[in-house]
Design a protein that fits this description.
Layout (H helix, E strand, L loop, with lengths): L7 H13 L31 E14 L7 E11 L9 E3 L3 H7 L5 H6 L12 E6 L9 E7 L10 H9 L3 E5 L7 E3 L5 E3 L2 H5 L6 H26 L13 E11 L1 H12 L5 E5 L19 H5 L5 E5 L12 H9 L4 E6 L10 H10 L5 H8 L4 H21 L16 E4 L1
Parallel strand pairs: 1-4, 5-6, 5-9, 9-10, 10-11, 11-12
Antiparallel strand pairs: 1-2, 2-6, 3-4, 7-8, 12-13
Helix pairs in contact: 4-12, 6-7, 10-11
């Protein structure tokens, strides 16, 4: 779930109409078509004390057919982000997107472009760099809590890199998951670029949007549980960077996701006790009817049953978001849950404010690669630096409290540090 509206159905409907008819400062940008220079952007610096390493890995589930491509085994790409010994500099910094993925992401009609509505071909997505060093050794220091991250509907796993890097810089091992054939594109080590099936699906007449969203959520939960299964074996995997496998504390696992990834985080918590805690960044917990309107029952089981472990809801001021009181799935979850829970809403935000859109798109707007009106629709009118700081602070405070036993008391109630956050418990 991502883009202009938090509900996937809204995104699907908008995209159907269409289908039917960051480098660092000082980096050299690639040239666009003709003589037009491509826009450049960069990610905000992590705030934790540790340098960051990263590595990517393909996982194949030989026991499960791909839900979107029957007849082939389900294969996924994941990335690990973790503390390392020395910082990356210059070209040592890992790319934000691999070249083939970046080219597709920025092209007209990709799910990524449909979601954010940036101008096709106007941004040097391949030139954006992270703050991480590829395949770096893990910083010694014993086992570290593990956090899974999942992006929203149609978004690649890279679309939350700013938040992921910040968690890694604070001492977490973060595992980001791409959902193949749902995400805009997934680049595999053999050179295969698996692009989303949704442009084709959305062009089909009579599509049952509610059924599609239920299938998507179930596929994400199945993918996530498979990744959890694989983490045990990866603790002994000699192909991983030095020390990474041994650093995974599989007794302290949490999950955070944006939009569809947030919905999947809480549904996986419901289905799998290995997830101890979860954060839902603006992901709905109800489905539309077949035609995309109204509310389809039953609600997801996590909403109907509730949770007995800690979770945090983080809403926005998107028209279909806000407090848990305003959302049937969130309200049901709230009423049925016995574990600790809280709800915060970021004033002045929109659906994209909890993603890299909040830091990257304003830079693109200044260079004419996205319109001002579309920028406001994507990320609202909150100051980007305040939105990024608030998101990082609340996510880290939650995981520190429940996975590390370090409580900074930010989640005790409204905070003068963040007057833009409306707090409910």
């Amino acid at each position: 779930m991502s883009g202009r509206g938090r509900a996937v159905a809204a995104v699907l409907l908008a995209a159907t109409a269409v289908v039917g008819v960051v480098g660092a400062p000082g980096a050299v940008a690639a040239q666009g078509r003709g003589t037009e220079r491509q826009a450049r952007a960069w990610l905000p610096q992590p705030t934790g004390p540790y340098p960051i390493g990263t590595t990517a890995l393909q996982l194949t589930d030989d026991g499960r057919d791909d839900p979107w491509k029957p007849g082939q085994h389900r294969k996924l790409m994941v990335s690990f982000w973790y503390p390392t010994t020395r910082p990356a500099t210059g070209d040592d910094r890992a790319p934000y997107m691999l070249p083939a993925a970046a080219e597709h992401f920025g092209s007209a009609g990709s799910i990524g472009q449909l979601n954010a509505k940036f101008e096709p071909g106007r941004t040097d997505w391949a030139g954006i760099r992270t703050h991480a060093r590829t395949d770096a050794p893990v910083l010694p220091g014993g086992k570290r809590p593990v956090v899974l991250y999942e992006a929203g509907f149609g978004d690649p796993r890279t679309w939350g890199t700013g938040l992921v890097e910040d968690l890694a810089s604070r001492g977490y091992v973060v595992v980001t998951v791409d959902h193949t054939y749902e995400a805009s594109e997934v680049a595999f080590p053999d050179g295969d670029l698996a692009t989303s099936v949704f442009p084709t699906l959305m062009s089909q007449p009579g599509l049952d949007y509610g059924a599609l969203l239920r299938k998507m959520l179930q596929a994400r939960v199945d993918d996530t549980r498979f990744v959890l299964d694989q983490l045990t074996g990866l603790r002994q995997d000699a192909q991983l960077p030095a020390g990474l496998g041994a650093s995974l504390d599989l007794d302290r696992i949490g999950m955070v996701g944006h939009s569809g990834g947030g919905s999947a985080a809480l549904q996986t918590m419901h289905d799998d006790p290995r997830l101890k805690v979860g954060i839902n960044l603006d992901g709905q917990l109800h489905f539309p009817r077949a035609d995309g309107s109204g509310i389809q029952l039953p609600l997801p089981t996590v909403a109907a049953d509730g949770l007995n472990r800690p979770f945090l809801l983080m809403g926005t001021q998107n028209p279909d978001s806000g407090s848990y009181h305003q959302q049937p799935g969130w309200d049901a979850l709230w009423q049925h849950s016995t574990g600790w829970h809280a709800d915060v809403t970021l004033t002045g935000s929109r659906h994209g404010s909890y993603t890299d859109a909040q830091s990257l798109l304003p830079q693109l707007a200044r260079q004419g690669a996205i319109s001002g009106d579309q920028l406001t629709e994507d990320v609202g009118d909150i100051r980007p630096d305040r939105a990024v700081l608030a998101t990082r602070s609340y996510v880290a405070s939650f995981f520190d409290r429940w996975l590390r036993g370090h409580d900074d008391h930010l989640l005790d109630g409204p905070s003068p540090r963040f007057p833009e956050m409306v707090y409910e418990r």
